[in-house]
Design brief:
The complex is a heterodimer of chains A (about 240) and B (about 240). Chain A has two domains: about 160 residues, Rossmann fold; about 70 residues, no CATH class. Helices cover about 40% and strands about 25% of the residues of chain A. Chain B is mainly α and about 240 residues long. Chain B has one domain. Helices cover about 80% and strands about 0% of the residues of chain B. In chain B, helix 1 packs across helix 7, helix 2 packs across helix 7 and helix 4 runs antiparallel to helix 10. The longest helix of chain B has 28 residues. Chain B starts with a helix and ends with a helix. Classes of the chains: A alpha/beta (about 240), B mainly alpha (about 240). Chains A and B meet through helix 2 and helix 3 of A and helix 1 and helix 6 of B.
Chain lengths: ~240, ~240
């Protein structure tokens, strides 16, 4: 579903993503781990078509994001890191707008909005102005817009960031369930989430993949601790310096 | 299709907040108020809106039009919704047009709501209503030009105040370089060709012809060309920021 080959992104002389390759199949939840500034969000922004790539290829469900961005974007649902929303709209109004942008209309739009509200537990705030929402509800509203068109691929940039423990649990459960039918790429700083949600994980550091495997394989590589592996593969440069 | 969806969202955003109402009321009060005070409408003894009413429009619009559109792109940058918009199946061109048309419609409404002035001249005498219509068309074109300039400026920054200040400055320059007192002053020291060239760059020479009922093809090209260049520029700036 997601095929990324030799992906590179340079901002001037700075290499943010360096020759990165990975794939996510249907029914897979790929955890994207790495320290701040590792290139996770930049990679996700390229996969979703927001940032143009410097080199490499991206295919979403067999459609090239570079050659046919409009067709490829239709197959993706995306939750950006900061969960951006239009503050002057209500939750329902915003979801209706996103559904229309996704080409849904009439009763299919109404059904999609109702389903997304229900899936993300937004019933109590559906008619509330987004400006007045708490961070947890804002995050869930943005997650809801990514589900509206029932996409084959979901790209979620830190979907549990800023949520309370109960909300975190609900969102993890939701991702696990959605992962049975879709290909999901999601980034996180919370290593426990890898065991709870992911079928596979990669650790990214300085724009390259430094570890790849199932949660069990990665834990084994770290001598029984994913934290130790993460520490070992992402701090080598700091130690060397 | 997506241009229409963005157009509707933007329009409802203007009217769900005080922005559109404030702009419409302030523009109506200023344009009508100036007509009957500093515009010396009663002194002209002429059923025309040329000097008393339309003359003020570029001066008012150079401040109020940027106030409407300063948020067009700076707000998208500041709130991060540009990322959402950039990953939806919509071209940036559609988004730019949707936003621009919504801002233009707010201004069309503001211009239409100055109709009491037109009623007044028609009640007092027999004005040339074609000249009045063409004056309104000229005002609308000036307004759209200023909106397009602000759209371009707001694409550069996430700060609405910066977008407003820079846009007003640019619109001010385009306005004063064709205004009579400035042109008359420049004629004393500049050559005729230079002054004529400067005047043709400003909006006033094109606008004043429209208020007299004369819409030249060159004026249409001037306004539509400036609008197109600014909107294409907006697209290029938004694309380059992501590269």
């Amino acid at each position: 579903m997601i095929e990324v080959n030799s992906l590179t992104k340079r901002f001037g002389h700075k290499v943010a993503v360096d020759n990165l390759s990975f794939s996510v199949k249907k029914g897979e939840v790929l955890g994207f781990l790495g320290p701040n500034g590792a290139g996770k969000s930049t990679t996700m922004r390229m996969v979703t078509g927001f940032l143009p790539v410097t080199e490499g290829s991206i295919e979403i469900g067999g459609v090239s994001m570079i050659a046919k961005p409009m067709a490829a974007k239709k197959k993706i649902g995306y939750l950006p890191e900061s969960a951006p929303l239009y503050n002057d709209m209500t939750v329902k109004g915003f979801l209706k707008f996103c559904a229309s942008m996704r080409g849904l209309g009439g009763s299919s739009r109404k059904d999609a909005v109702e389903k997304a509200i229900e899936t993300c537990f937004l019933q109590s705030v559906a008619h509330q102005s987004i400006e007045t929402l708490s961070k947890g509800y804002r995050h869930r509203t943005c997650l809801a817009q990514s589900l509206l068109h029932d996409p084959e691929v979901l790209v979620l940039d830190e979907p549990t960031d800023g949520l309370d423990p109960n909300q975190k649990r609900e969102v993890r459960k939701l991702i696990r369930n959605l992962g049975k039918e879709k290909a999901i790429l999601f980034s996180t700083h919370i290593l426990e989430e890898v065991h709870e949600v992911c079928t596979r994980a990669v650790i990214v550091d300085q724009g390259t993949i430094v570890a790849d495997g199932t949660p069990e394989e990665l834990t084994k590589q770290g001598g029984g601790s994913l934290y130790d592996l993460f520490h070992k593969v992402t701090t080598s440069e700091i130690t060397a310096a | 299709m997506n241009t229409w969806t963005i157009f509707k969202r933007e329009l409802s955003s203007y009217f769900s907040q005080p922005t559109a109402y404030a702009i419409i009321v302030i523009f109506s009060l200023l344009s009508i108020g100036l007509t009957f005070t500093f515009g010396r409408f009663w002194d002209y003894q002429d059923a025309s809106l040329n000097g008393s009413f339309f003359w003020w429009h570029p001066l008012i619009l150079m401040i109020l039009a940027p106030a409407v559109s300063m948020r067009l792109w700076s707000d998208e940058h500041r709130s991060g919704t540009i990322e959402l918009l950039g990953t939806l199946p919509v071209t940036m061109r559609s988004a730019i047009l949707g936003k621009f048309f919504a801002a233009a419609l707010v201004w069309l409404l503001a211009l239409v709501l100055t109709f009491p002035v037109v009623n007044t001249v028609n009640w007092l005498g027999a004005p040339d209503n074609w000249a009045i219509f063409s004056g309104y068309l000229g005002s609308f074109l000036v307004c759209c030009t200023f909106l397009a300039i602000t759209s371009l400026v707001s694409a550069f920054t996430r700060d609405q105040v910066v977008a407003l200040i820079v846009s007003v400055s640019l619109c001010f320059l385009l306005t004063i370089c064709g205004i009579d007192p400035v042109i008359n002053e420049l004629r004393r020291s500049w050559t005729k060709e230079s002054v004529d060239l400067l005047a043709s760059v400003g909006v006033y020479s094109h606008f004043q012809e429209a208020t007299r009922g004369l819409i030249r093809f060159t004026s249409l090209i001037y306004f539509l060309g400036l609008i197109t260049v600014c909107l294409i520029g907006t697209n290029l700036v938004l694309k380059s920021q992501r590269a």
